[in-house]
């Protein structure tokens, strides 16, 4: 695994801070959708978990730092493993993302929702 000193993916903050930020974002998103009249039964299971959102955010920051180039499937897999190495508490979420189909494109639909 890559250390937290990896220049391609600097460690940003503690998992607790990242989770708090993600929870705030998800809460805002849920409130916005509820105020728009959406039924929570229709959208809640489509939202990422807090840890998934943290991983998406870390990945998005890396993509932005790399000039905004969307990663290939192989590069995405490597990036997710680096995130899991730097943030072991996020490893279960990363593993779930690695085992699902279209992991390197799933963020497209999540970003559109957010």
The residue ranges in which pLDDT falls below 50 over 5 or more consecutive positions are 1-5, 103-114
Strand content: under 5%
Largest sheet: none
Distance between the termini: 30 Å
Computed over alpha carbons, the radius of gyration is 14 Å
The counted number of beta strands is: 0
The H/E string reads HHHHHH
Mean pLDDT: 82
The coarse overall form would be: globular
Class from secondary-structure proportions: mainly alpha
- The percent range for helix content is 55-70%
DSSP helical segment count:
6
What report would you give on this structure?
With 114 residues, the protein is mainly alpha-helical. The N and C termini lie far apart (30 Å). Residues 1-5 and 103-114 have low confidence and may be disordered. It has six helices and no strands.
Outline:
This protein is an all-alpha fold. It contains six helices and no strands. Helix 1 packs across helix 3 (50-65) and helix 4 (73-86) packs antiparallel against helix 5.
What's the topology here?
Elements: H1 15-35, H2 40-43, H3 50-65, H4 73-86, H5 91-99, H6 106-113
């Amino acid at each position: 695994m890559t250390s937290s000193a990896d220049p391609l993916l600097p460690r940003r903050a503690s998992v607790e801070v990242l989770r708090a930020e993600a929870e705030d974002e998800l809460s805002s998103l849920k409130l916005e959708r509820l105020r728009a009249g959406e039924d929570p039964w229709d959208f809640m299971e489509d939202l990422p978990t807090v840890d998934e959102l943290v991983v998406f955010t870390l990945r998005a920051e890396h993509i932005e730092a790399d000039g905004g180039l969307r990663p290939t499937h192989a590069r995405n897999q490597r990036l997710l493993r680096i995130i899991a190495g730097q943030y072991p508490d996020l490893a279960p979420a990363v593993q779930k993302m690695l085992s699902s189909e279209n992991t390197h494109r799933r963020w497209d639909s999540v970003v559109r929702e957010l």
